[in-house]
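Sat 14:20. Reprocessing the chain from the morning session after the first attempt stalled halfway. Input below, unchanged.
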Amino acid sequence: MSADLMLRLSAPVLFSDVLDQTRVVLVSLLKVASIGSLLAELPHSEKAAGIRLPERLVDSTFPGAYVRFSTDEQSIVHFGVFEGGSKGNLLIGFGSVSTPASQVLTAGLAAATALLMHTTIIDSGTHWLDKEEYQPAELISELAVEESPSDLPAAIVSVHNKQSSRKRRIGQ
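Finished this time. Tokens:
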């Protein structure tokens, strides 16, 4: 999985707050009453340590997590903290497989985390918007569905199609 979106880790937040804010962002983005639950689990190498993810701070010691919609096993997004850049900045990366649900969840996690940390989203390949850095509200506004869809899968496909059509317009 590649880091589709990143942001600078500016202030530690609870991982449970990230998941709660992600649900709020996704309901707004998808214009649905509920997205159901999000499941998060530790990478295999960390499971034996007895770490409880919701209680963890997203900081330099965060072990990483795999997050997905409870109703879609293919919607996996890796949420990880790493050191990057020449100044040793701590970055949070969001990487996913290329399914519509995982791409929408990537956007939701990135926007929610950026909102909580009061920071911008970094998109070095301009895969999501036509610039490399932007506010979370810009991403939400650009991707949001315009009308309430019939259900969650239809909303996900609508956002994914909107993003795919934007990519074709700019030649990616």
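The chain has one domain: 5-169.
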